[in-house]
């Protein structure tokens, strides 16, 4: 997916109003891009709407037309990151729709690692927990949103009972979340030994549930 692909507003994207014209949509994208760059540079606590507007080249009033505060901007950015993650996973799965789930785990983690290393701001907020554990959805934790998205994707590409997928995937997501934070704690590229162990641990656990 293109890095310039526009965000698709949905119930989890807190836009005050939808950008109808292309120019407005592009302005919203610049705000999200600016917030991503600033998150990478100064972190969430130091982020302000004034900084975002200045970096995006728009008036603060223009930002407030679409977002009530910085949290809403970061929420929209996080949703965009999740959309891109899911799209990348879907594309990989589509390249080989009948692959073994073992290979799917590798691909999921590799896509996450690539985003962590290359997507501005992603390493600072991931899928939103730094801001709020329910940033993406008021009714579900961020990890639950990811779990549901992955379960829906994987169900169509592996020969496993969909009803058996959700809980094991939820446990794998929670375990991977903690281990990936550990891997990147002291190494901006991720400790390769910890990353390798993470893959082995997730595969071992899922093998105990799904079989090899």
UniProtKB/TrEMBL annotation:
Signal peptide: none annotated. This is TetR family transcriptional regulator. Residues 1-22 are annotated as: Disordered. SUPFAM superfamilies: Homeodomain-like (SSF46689). The lineage of its organism: Bacteria, Bacillati, Actinomycetota, Actinomycetes, Pseudonocardiales. Keywords: DNA-binding, Transcription, Transcription regulation. The keyword Transcription applies. It holds the Pfam family TetR_N. Residues 48-67 bind DNA. It comes from Prauserella cavernicola. GO terms for molecular function: DNA-binding transcription factor activity; transcription cis-regulatory region binding. Residues 25-85 form the HTH tetR-type domain. Gene3D superfamilies: Tetracycline Repressor, domain 2.
């Amino acid at each position: 997916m293109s890095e310039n692909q526009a965000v698709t507003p949905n119930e989890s994207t807190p836009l005050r109003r939808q950008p109808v014209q292309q120019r407005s949509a592009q302005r919203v994208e610049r705000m999200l891009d600016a917030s991503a760059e600033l998150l990478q540079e100064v972190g969430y606590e130091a982020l302000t709407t004034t900084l975002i507007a200045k970096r995006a080249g728009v008036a603060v009033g223009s930002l407030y037309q679409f977002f009530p505060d910085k949290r809403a901007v970061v929420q929209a950015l996080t949703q965009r990151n999740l959309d891109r993650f899911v799209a990348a996973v879907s594309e990989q799965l589509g390249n080989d729709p009948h692959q073994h789930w073992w290979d799917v785990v590798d691909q999921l983690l590799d896509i996450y690692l690539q985003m962590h290393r290359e997507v501005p701001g992603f390493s600072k907020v991931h899928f939103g927990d730094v801001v709020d554990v329910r940033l993406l959805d008021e009714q579900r934790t961020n990890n639950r949103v990811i779990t549901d998205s992955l379960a829906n994707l994987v169900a169509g590409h592996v020969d496993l009972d969909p009803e058996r997928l959700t809980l094991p995937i939820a446990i794998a997501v929670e375990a991977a979340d903690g281990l990936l934070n550990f891997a990147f704690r002291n190494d901006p590229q991720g400790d390769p030994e910890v990353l390798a162990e993470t893959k082995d641990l997730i595969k071992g656990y899922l093998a105990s549930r799904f079989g090899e």
